[in-house]
Design a protein that fits this description.
Blueprint: E1 2-5, H1 12-21, E2 26-29, H2 32-36, E3 40-43, H3 49-58, H4 62-70, E4 75-78, H5 80-83, E5 88-89, E6 95-96, E7 104-107, E8 116-121, E9 123-124, E10 139-144, E11 146-149, E12 155-161, E13 164-172, E14 175-178, H6 186-199
Parallel strand pairs: 1-2, 1-3, 3-4, 4-14, 5-7
Antiparallel strand pairs: 5-6, 7-11, 8-10, 9-12, 12-13, 13-14
Amino acid sequence: MVVIIDYNVGNLKSVQNAFERIGVETIVSRDHAVIRQAKGIVLPGVGTFPVAMDNLKRFDLMTILKERKDAGIPILGICLGMQILFEKGMEIKECKGLGFLDGEIRLMEVDDKIPHMGWNELCFHQDHPLIQNIKEKDFVYFVHSYMAYVPSQELIAYCEYGGEKITAIVAKENVMGCQFHPEKSGEVGKKILLAFKEMIK
């Protein structure tokens, strides 16, 4: 069973529907007892970094997420949910993140319009189980203005936009993130979620 964390940020239903389409039982919850039963955890998110972190604190979710991370439960962050996995974000103001991944979130420095919105192709940086079912140059759907500046060892895939490499998939041990929306990325997104399903014991 996968728990999709409900912290009042983003369209939870579309993420839940995407998992249900691949046969994964999901529960949308912020209840600690339910989260402790999860075989996998998903952090969705649309909005701003400080609001997301404020909501995690308000709903007392930071400690339980760290507990589950330390227990080795696979965690997948999507879009803003990926960004708050990092040490800090610079959106609106400097704000501390969960610190599960190394690096920080800053406004994209690109020679093109922001937000980066639409379909873009993935370039692989290194192998990872999350990309085992897809091919390099497959297209996924992005909507964001801020990006992760991440150490090379945690970068799994990127896309090219405005003359820059934009972080697309990251991972460190059992913590993973997609800057794009797999739930809106058609067959490719479905294959990424299937790969996450295979990591769930």
